[in-house]
């Protein structure tokens, strides 16, 4: 599986392209290839040169050395391209072509805003936005993680799709994650897109293309919905808040060890940004007959570990996660159920101060 990974880089600034290429090669290692896009290497007919960029790119990306690409990594501003064949190229044209071919895309900006507003993103099939705030090395690490995740999904899909019991996208994803018991909860992250199942499962262009399209669809859904909005899964801050453990206390190695059995290890699992299955955290707590995680860790590790505190009012325990401030927050000091939150993301909230501050961004 890993040996077949191929990343194609679209970057129009030579120095940045060299730096990002080197970083991608470092993080992908022996798992595959990283190739810069060079449209000028192909001789196109005059009629082809007059077609829209997305159509030309679609045709080129089907040819060697770009055929069977696992992931495209693209700068969001490609207007400085020195390739006269694609002057004024935009990431939208790249994304359109890749969507037609069911190739996932990660985009980035060389000059990111002070706040990348990651919380504003909504799940939509076709684009993953990566931050450049921490430099090309971290960008490349995340891109390589994405490439491996999509490749893993594609490799596991054929027998899962062949099982007639997996008759919905939620059941297919649950089976891929070896968590069939969570299919109903996964369905709550559908963001109204479950009606695309017939299109995604359509047997067009053969079985291989069907698998590719499904991997494309499921990968975006997993990355940008289930792993982004705490509910079914929880990041460190959200998990600590849910368990009623102070964030710093939850980070202690002995405390982490108690909950190791709940760690998420599926596609896109990030060792630098671990996540836990929320239901499995609850099972660990209840198996010791404890009322919450705080009681459990005080009993097993340290009786002095503090409870989780709401970022708005520290006198209150938190329990939830503010997706803007990335901090623990209490139910009464936050807002939830926004239209762009997946229904399954019941740990995801926005603190009242942030809700007031970012009202215009939130569409209210």
Q: Per the principal axes of the C-alpha atoms, what is the gross shape?
A: elongated
Count structural domains: 3
Calculate the mean pLDDT score and round it: 89
Q: Specify the oligomeric state.
A: single chain
Cα distance spanning the termini: 46 Å
The helix content is: 40-55%
CATH architecture of the largest domain: 3-Layer(aba) Sandwich
Q: Tell me, what is the CATH class of the largest domain?
A: Alpha Beta
Total beta strand runs: 11
**CATH homologous superfamily of the largest domain?**
Response regulator
Strand order of the largest sheet: 2-1-3-4-5
Count of helix runs: 15
> What would you call the structural class?
alpha/beta
Report the major sheet. Answer: 5 strands, parallel
What integer value in Å does the Rg equal? 22 Å
Low-pLDDT segments, ≥5 res: none
SSE ordering: EHEHHEHEEHHHHHEHHHEHHEEEEH
Task: Describe the fold and architecture.
By secondary structure, this protein is of the alpha/beta class. The protein folds into 3 domains: 2-146, Rossmann fold, CATH 3.40.50.2300; 151-226, no CATH class; 233-362, no CATH class. Helices cover 40% and strands 12% of the residues. It is built from 15 helices and 11 strands. The protein has a 5-stranded parallel sheet with strand order 2-1-3-4-5, with helices on both faces. The chain has a 4-stranded mixed sheet with strand order 9-8-11-10. Strands 6-7 form a two-stranded antiparallel ribbon. Helix 3 (53-60) crosses helix 4. The protein is elongated and about 75 Å long.
In short:
The protein has helices spanning 14-28, 46-49, 53-60, 91-100, 135-162, 169-176, 183-187, 197-201, 206-226, 236-243, 247-250, 253-258, 278-287, 293-300, 352-357; strands spanning 5-10, 32-36, 71-75, 105-108, 128-129, 233-235, 275-277, 319-322, 327-330, 334-335, 348-351. The protein has 364 residues and is of the alpha/beta class.
């Amino acid at each position: 599986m890993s040996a077949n990974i191929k990343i194609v880089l679209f970057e129009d600034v030579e120095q940045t392209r060299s730096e990002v290429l080197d970083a991608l090669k470092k993080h992908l290692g022996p798992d595959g290839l990283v190739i810069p896009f060079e449209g000028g290497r192909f001789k196109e007919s005059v009629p082809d040169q007059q077609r829209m960029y997305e159509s030309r790119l679609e045709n080129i990306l089907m040819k060697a050395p770009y055929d069977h690409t696992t992931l495209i990594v693209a700068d969001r501003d490609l207007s400085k391209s020195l390739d006269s064949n694609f002057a004024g190229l935009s990431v939208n044209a790249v994304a359109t072509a890749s969507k037609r071919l069911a190739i996932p895309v990660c985009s980035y900006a060389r000059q990111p805003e002070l706040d990348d507003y990651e919380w504003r993103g909504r799940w939509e099939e076709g684009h993953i936005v990566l931050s450049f705030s921490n430099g090309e090395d971290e960008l490349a690490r995340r891109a390589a993680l994405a490439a491996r995740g999509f490749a893993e999904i594609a490799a596991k899909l054929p027998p899962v799709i062949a099982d007639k019991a997996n008759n919905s996208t939620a059941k297919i994803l649950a089976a891929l994650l070896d968590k069939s018991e969570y299919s109903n909860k996964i369905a709550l992250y559908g963001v109204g897109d479950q009606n695309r199942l017939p299109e995604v499962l359509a047997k067009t262009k053969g079985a291989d293309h069907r698998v590719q399209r499904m991997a494309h669809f499921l990968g975006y859904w997993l990355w940008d919905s289930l792993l982004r909005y705490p509910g079914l899964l929880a990041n460190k801050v959200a998990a600590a808040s849910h368990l009623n453990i102070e964030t710093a206390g939850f980070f202690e190695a002995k405390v982490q060890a108690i909950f190791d059995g709940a760690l998420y290890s599926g596609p896109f699992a990030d060792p630098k940004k671990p996540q836990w299955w929320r239901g499995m955290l609850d099972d660990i707590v209840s198996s010791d007959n404890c009322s919450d995680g705080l009681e459990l860790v005080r009993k097993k590790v340290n009786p002095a570990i503090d409870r989780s505190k709401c970022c708005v009012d520290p006198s209150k325990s938190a329990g939830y996660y503010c997706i803007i401030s990335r901090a623990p927050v209490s139910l009464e000091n936050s807002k939830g159920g926004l239209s762009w939150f997946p229904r399954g993301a019941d740990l995801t909230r926005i603190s009242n101060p942030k809700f007031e501050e970012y009202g215009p961004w939130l569409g209210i």
